[in-house]
Amino acid sequence: MLFHPLDNPDCIELPQKFTFPFCYDPHPLAVAAAEKVIALLDGVEELCQMKEGKMFGVLIVEWQKQLGFLMAYSGSLSRKIIDSNEIFSSDFVPQIFTLPDNSIPSTQEESRRLQTYIFTQYKMLNALGEERDLIDIFAETPLRFPPSGSGDCCAPKMLQYAFCHGMKPVCMAEFWYGNSPKDEIRHHLNYYPSCQGRCKPILNWMLKGMDVDDDPMNEYRGGMGENLSIVYEDEWLLIVDKPSGMLSVPGKIVVPSVAEVLKRQLGDENLQLFPVHRLDMFTSGLQILVKGLQTQKDVQRMFENRQVKKQYVALLEGEVASDRGRITLPLSADYLNRPCQRVDFEHGKSAVTDYEVVERCNGRTLVNLFPHTGRTHQLRVHCASGEGLGCPIVGDALYGHKNQRLYLHAQAVSFVHPVTGKPIDVCHPPVPSFSECLHNQ
User: Is 351 exposed, middle or buried (0-12, 13-18, 19+ CB in 10 A)?
Assistant: First the structure.
């Protein structure tokens, strides 16, 4: 058995529900188990020498009236590491299915058949004791066919082992160990949610029959009662200061959007209000909305022609070395890990950001950011990537470390009014918490 007892588990209260794998704060039991795993990994010299690290996971389980944990790593490790370190064959959950070494296809058609066969061998259990293979599970998704590596991530491997051996899952957590890949942003020992592309369809099936935490994003109910600060308004457009945690445009989750709040605030539910650009949900600051379809087209054309100048202020983890510069890292969507973006020099779209340092203090840097393009998560990736500033924005749960908020604020916007032809220059600095977070760690 790969069951590892926990030390003094009675001193930590059990969670009421199992972890929602795609957005969570690790439970103290999972953190305690992860620390034991990390202590094991720190003794493996070969892991420290790997160019890219790996995701590891722990699953707290109840088994034979004991509380303990399972541990796993995503994908596979080299034969050299496994042969040199017995822990990976004796302590970690194995892969659900292993192909014989001599099964090497020689043609593309053979490769396709082999891949299909492999996925039919991943017979995934759920908490009700039901079974489905990966071909069946992914047939109901937009992908229609499992991506390469499906079923080999930590969470499915650990849950499958637990169900096969009569263990009751309690909570889980996954963390990155080692260097970050070049095309993704991963931080050593940071906790991460399960991936969307490979894991979500599988885990949705495997967790059937379990009492699972609600998605924290769907529990948000604030915002509708607060009024927005309108910093500019005329008969054609208005500019508001969007708070962190409010959607700039309506989305799938139950969170108020700027236009919805404004219509209630202005007492006109039939008012035609159109956001002409987006801010991330947890980014605060200036957002432009227009009144009427013609003005919407005019302002959108200005954005497309890069005639709208924007300035952001951000608080970064770490000290940026140079006082100013330009970041040119092309970006593309990480389709298997939505909503993340990745640096992609082969297929990515051009993304350009200028920056200037405002202040360095306590191991952090306050910077002004001037985007020349408007790619999704552009500023967040350009700051966090090792090929950019290498300093993630404080509170960036996707590319850095989770905090009470994302310290990114759209501070200034300037453009020529599409109707009057007059210059519009609006500046609205962030709340004092930015400076407080910089100076009072």
Answer: buried
Question: DSSP letter at 225?
Answer: T
Least confident of 62-76, 133-147, 262-276: 262-276
Q: What is the dihedral of CA 231, 308, 372, 280, to 10 degrees?
A: 40
Positions annotated as catalytic residues are 280
Each residue's pLDDT tens digit, 122-160? 999 999 999 999 999 999 888 899 998 899 999 999 999
Q: What is the mean pLDDT of residues 57-64?
A: 96
Which helix or strand (DSSP H or E) is residue 295 part of? Answer: helix 293-304
- Give per-residue burial for 210-235: e unless 16+ CB within 10 Å, then b: eebbeeeeeebeebeeeebeeeeeee
Q: Element (H or E) spanning 412, and its range?
A: strand 408-416
> What pLDDT, on a 0 to 100 scale, did the predictor assign at position 218?
67
DSSP letters, 107-167, are SHHHHHHHHHHHHHH-EEE-TTS-EEEHHHHHTTSTT-SPPTTTT-SHHHHHHHHHHHTT-
d(CA 170, CA 331): 38
Cβ partners under 8 Å of residue 84, min gap 6: 46
Predicted model pTM: 0.85
Find all residues with CB under 8 Å of 438, minimum gap 6, and list them.
315, 359, 361, 362, 364, 366
Helices first, then strands: H and E counts in the chain: 12, 19
Q: How far from 33 is each of 39, 59, 173, CA to CA, in Å?
A: 10, 8, 9
- Confidence at residue 181, expressed as pLDDT on a 0 to 100 scale: 85
Query: End-to-end alpha-carbon separation of the chain, Å?
Result: 45
| Amino acid present at 388 | G
